[in-house]
């Protein structure tokens, strides 16, 4: 009867576009148009994400019925403020990743654009879906793309880290599936909105089963988010990946955090997981952050340091979700894009540094000959480093200030302040020590002598010394830094918006109504959908 | 039947986790495979155990309650999960073989410490 317009299809486009373009790119193979086509697709996804962001800014939750089946029976997608934010962050990071890959990765690995499309499709699907099993499927899609992306460097380190990464993620998938099945067995649905309704009405003797399933999901998501006892795979994996891929992976831990926040509030109400697991999330988050600060101090190269900072940002977010007030959730949402952009930019700087200094020194914190283009590199290093560590005037400072302010009423405020500020200090120390070794001691040091000669230069195998400028990576870093500057410039409206997004996350009734209340388009409904 | 089924899942899970904790990559692959079998059986059981029950009710005299038909959804979920775990195991095997060739050792860390 009434035809669907393109606007109605908007929520599904961020999944469908990269999926179709990815398949097309696989067919195109080495064709010269492959990379530009992939880039155009990413821009289109960014446009869709921005449009969804505008549509949801007022507080509406948009839902989409895949295949026009009514919600608890078919698979629904839902976009609220949080999902739109995650889509935007993902699209920006993916664009930066492809820009940076133009410096050599694209030429060496013609399959890279296709893999990137599949990765983006999986990420977007995980952020959009309103179905628990579908979330599992999209997790697998994004994981299998990430396994392949990790292997594009295919060095020995990458293969070794890859085995660990795949094994731990397969284990977490098994846990996820067990928990999802348990929820289905008790509650009889997998639609997240429907789950949320039925949890509230569950029989008292089944309550423990539901909580057990919810906590198993928490462990599965915790592995993805690299929370402390489950996150040891992260620094090795991210350190072994090629720089543009590692930058893309900065958004991957955030999928786990998104799932913790989303599933927690839908299953267990406004407090999320905090109302079931008590202060566990808060403690685990703080421990992760403290551990990441120590790891950062011990890091011997920039890439490992950046990986520890990603780990620390996951810990910070986990802690904020664990505090579970709407102010802390708002602060978490403000912190999330900043942390992702800053960490990705730092990873790209590490890649630039490694290629400027050659495989012998790479991005290790060792004195050596002055790297080519030291002024530009040094500037990028300082900007991205200060932004990641949370010093003014960059986005990290504003995010940190909002964060510290948001937890001031929490009983754990003192511990949080100490750990957050201590971690910042540790990272500043690590960055300034590394930066002065690389950029200032460089001219004075004798050729190839100091510190750690025992390790052979197997850091980035296959990468030859390239002294020429790398416009792709530089433009990607500038893009990410510009996003960071935009966060600072529009800090006040953004903070208000994210606080509202946090409040929306905590009152899932809108989400439920949008998903379950959506009727199939009349006239084209498949027969027999009536409940 | 429920006891037998549950013990089977328990045994598979125990064996899977034990194998997964070993340091040889082939053992880890086998362990994950067993674990995924256990998970698949568990998902299947969450639709309740039925013998000789059709997933669709054709007899109008029967009441449309779960006692009279087998829930088709877990069966569909298991099918998806099998396909996914099959693909993932293939990726992991390829990686493990690559690591074995690279390092000449099938220790999960590349070489035994």
What does this structure look like?
The complex is a heterodimer of chains A (531) and B (113). Chain A has 531 residues and is an all-alpha fold. Chain A has one domain (10-446, 457-516). Chain A has 22 helices and two strands. Chain B is built from three helices and no strands. Chain B has 113 residues and is mainly alpha-helical. In chain B, α1 packs antiparallel against α2 and α2 runs antiparallel to α3 (72-103). Chain B has one domain (2-51, 69-103). The interface between A and B is medium-sized, with 27 and 34 residues.
Distance between the termini of chain A: 21 Å
String of helices and strands of chain A: HHEEHHHHHHHHHHHHHHHHHHHH
User: How is the main sheet of chain A built?
Assistant: 2 strands, antiparallel
Largest sheet strand order of chain A = 1-2
Name the quaternary structure.
heterodimer
Largest sheet of chain B: none
Low-confidence runs of chain B: none
The unreliable regions of chain A are 445-466, 527-531
Helix content of chain B: 55-70%
The overall pLDDT average of chain B reads 87
Beta content of chain B comes to: under 5%
Number of DSSP strands of chain B?
A: 0
Shape of chain B: elongated
Main attributes of the structure:
heterodimer, A: 531 residues, mainly alpha, two-stranded antiparallel ribbon, 22 helices, 2% strand, B: 113 residues, elongated
Write the layout of secondary structure elements.
The complex is a heterodimer of chains A (about 525) and B (about 110).
Chain A: H1 13-28, H2 34-56, E1 62-65, E2 76-79, H3 81-101, H4 105-108, H5 112-128, H6 132-150, H7 156-187, H8 192-200, H9 204-225, H10 233-240, H11 243-249, H12 252-268, H13 274-277, H14 280-298, H15 302-323, H16 326-361, H17 374-389, H18 395-406, H19 413-440, H20 471-489, H21 491-506, H22 509-516
Antiparallel strand pairs in A: 1-2
Helix pairs in contact in A: 1-2, 1-5, 2-3, 2-5, 3-5, 3-11, 3-16, 3-20, 5-6, 6-7, 7-9, 7-10, 8-12, 8-22, 9-12, 10-15, 11-16, 12-15, 14-15, 14-19, 15-16, 15-19, 16-17, 16-18, 16-20, 16-21, 17-19
Chain B: H1 2-20, H2 25-45, H3 72-103
Helix pairs in contact in B: 1-2, 2-3
């Amino acid at each position: 009867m009434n035809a669907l317009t393109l606007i109605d299809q908007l929520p599904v486009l961020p999944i469908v576009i990269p999926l179709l373009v990815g398949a097309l790119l696989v067919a195109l193979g080495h064709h010269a148009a492959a990379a530009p086509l992939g880039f155009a697709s990413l821009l289109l996804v960014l446009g869709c994400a921005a449009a969804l962001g505008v549509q949801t800014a007022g507080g509406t939750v948009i839902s989409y019925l895949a295949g026009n089946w009514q919600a608890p029976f078919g698979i629904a997608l839902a976009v609220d403020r949080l999902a739109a934010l995650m889509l935007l962050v993902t699209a920006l990071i993916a664009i930066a990743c492809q820009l940076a890959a133009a410096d050599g990765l694209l030429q060496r690995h013609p399959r890279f654009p296709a893999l990137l499309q599949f990765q983006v499709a999986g990420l977007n699907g995980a952020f959009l879906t309103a179905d628990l099993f579908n979330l599992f499927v999209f997790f697998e899609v994004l994981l299998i793309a990430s396994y392949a992306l990790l292997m594009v460097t295919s060095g020995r380190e990458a293969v070794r880290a890859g085995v660990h990464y795949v094994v731990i993620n397969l284990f977490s998938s098994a846990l996820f599936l067990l928990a999802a099945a348990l929820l289905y067995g008790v509650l009889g649905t997998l639609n997240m909105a429907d789950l949320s309704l039925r949890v509230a009405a569950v029989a008292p003797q089944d309550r423990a089963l539901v909580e057990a399933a919810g906590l198993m999901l928490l462990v599965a998501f915790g592995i993805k988010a690299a929370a402390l006892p489950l996150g040891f795979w992260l620094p090795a994996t991210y350190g072994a990946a090629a720089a543009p891929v590692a930058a893309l992976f900065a958004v991957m831990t955030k999928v786990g955090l998104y799932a913790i926040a989303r599933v927690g509030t839908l299953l267990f109400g406004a407090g999320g997981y905090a109302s079931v697991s008590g202060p566990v999330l808060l403690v685990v988050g703080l421990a992760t952050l403290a551990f990441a600060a120590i790891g950062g101090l011990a890091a011997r190269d920039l890439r490992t340091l950046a990986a520890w900072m990603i780990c620390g940002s996951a810990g910070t977010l986990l802690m904020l979700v664990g505090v579970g007030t709407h102010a802390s959730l708002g602060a978490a949402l403000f912190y999330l894009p900043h942390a992702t952009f800053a960490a990705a930019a730092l990873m790209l700087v590490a890649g630039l540094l490694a290629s400027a200094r050659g495989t012998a020194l790479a991005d290790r914190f060792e004195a050596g000959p002055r790297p080519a283009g030291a002024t530009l590199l040094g500037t990028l290093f300082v900007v991205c480093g200060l932004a990641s560590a949370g010093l003014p005037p960059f986005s990290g400072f504003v995010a940190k200030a909002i964060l510290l302010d948001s937890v001031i009423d929490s009983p754990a405020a003192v511990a949080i302040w100490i750990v957050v500020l201590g971690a910042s200090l540790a990272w500043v120390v690590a960055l300034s020590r590394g930066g002065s070794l690389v950029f200032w001691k460089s001219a004075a040091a004798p050729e190839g002598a100091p510190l750690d000669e025992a390790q052979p230069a197997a850091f980035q195998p296959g990468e030859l010394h390239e002294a020429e400028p790398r416009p792709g990576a530089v433009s990607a870093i500038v893009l990410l830094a510009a996003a960071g500057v935009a966060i600072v410039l529009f800090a006040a409206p953004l903070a208000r918006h994210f606080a509202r997004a946090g409040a929306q996350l905590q009152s899932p009734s809108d989400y439920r109504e949008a998903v379950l209340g959506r009727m199939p388009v009349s006239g084209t409904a498949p027969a027999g959908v009536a409940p | 039947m429920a006891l037998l089924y549950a013990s089977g899942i328990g045994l598979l899970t125990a064996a899977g986790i034990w194998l997964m904790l070993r340091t040889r990559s082939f053992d880890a692959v086998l362990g994950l495979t067993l674990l995924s079998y256990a998970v698949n059986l568990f998902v299947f059981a969450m639709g309740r155990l039925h013998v000789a029950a059709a997933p669709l009710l054709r007899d109008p005299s029967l009441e449309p309650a779960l006692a009279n038909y087998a829930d088709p959804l877990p069966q569909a979920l298991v099918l998806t999960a099998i396909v996914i775990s099959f693909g993932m195991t293939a990726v992991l095997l390829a990686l493990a073989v690559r690591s074995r060739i690279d390092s000449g050792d099938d220790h999960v860390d590349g070489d035994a410490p």
